[in-house]
Amino acid sequence: MSPSSGEFRNAWGKFPTGVSIVTTHTEQGAPYCTTANAVSSVSLDPLLLQLSMATASSTCGNITRDGRFGVNFLREEDAELATFFAKATGADREKLPSDHSVFPSGTIGLNDSLVVMDCRVVQAIEAGDHIVFIAEVEELEVREGRPLVFYEGAFSSVADA
C-alpha cells in the first residue's frame, strides 16, 4: 500500500528544519512576506539555494514574475513573527517588521534575522503541486544568534551543542 499524504507529512515532521521569512513584492510593488521552511543549500560554486513553494501561492506567483526573493533565517525568539506570516492573509502579508532594509536589487531583508540572503532565480522546476526555485545568492549577511527550528508541527530552539 502506498503511503498517504498525511503519513508523508507526519514523516517529514520528524525532520527538524530552520524557519525563514521569504520576502517578495506584489504585482503593485508592495512588500510581501511568508513563512517557509522548505529552503536548503544546493551549491557552493556558484552559491545556490533551493526554495519550494506551492504553485497556487501568491509568493510563488511573485517569485515567478519578478525572478527574485529574499530569505531571512529567523532567530529562536522569532516564533511569533513566523506564526504571523504563516497564518496571515492578504494585506497582512504586506506588513514588514519595522527594522528592515532594501538591497540595491530591491529585495527586502529583515534586519533582526540571523541570516539574510538576496536571491536571483536561475531555474524553476515544476514538481507536483510546488515549484522548486533554484536561486543564486547575490548578497549575504550572517549575524550571531541561535536559529528558530520547526519540529513535529511546532516551533522550537536548538539545544546547546
Please name the fourth-level CATH homologous superfamily. Answer: Electron Transport, Fmn-binding Protein, Chain A
Low-confidence stretches: none
Indicate the overall shape: globular
Question: What is the β-strand count?
Answer: 12
| Rounded mean pLDDT score | 94
Quote the distance from N terminus to C terminus.
40 Å
Number of domain modules: 1
Q: How would you name the oligomeric state of the polypeptide chains in this document?
A: single chain
Largest sheet: 7 strands, antiparallel
- Computed structural class: alpha+beta
Query: Helical residue percent?
Result: 10-25%
Order of SSEs: HEEEEEHEHEEEEEE
What is the CATH class designation?
Mainly Beta
Structure in words:
- The structure is a single chain.
- The chain has helices spanning 5-13, 58-66, 79-87; strands spanning 17-18, 20-25, 31-36, 39-44, 47-54, 68-73, 100-102, 108-110, 115-127, 130-142, 148-151, 154-157.
- The chain is of the alpha+beta class and 161 residues long.
- The chain has one domain (5-11, 18-155): Electron Transport, Fmn-binding Protein, Chain A (Pnp Oxidase, Chain A, Roll), CATH 2.30.110.
- The protein has a 7-stranded antiparallel beta sheet with strand order 3-2-6-9-10-5-4.
- A hairpin with a 2-residue loop joins strand 11 (148-151) and strand 12.
- It is globular and about 50 Å long.
- The protein starts with a helix and ends with a strand.
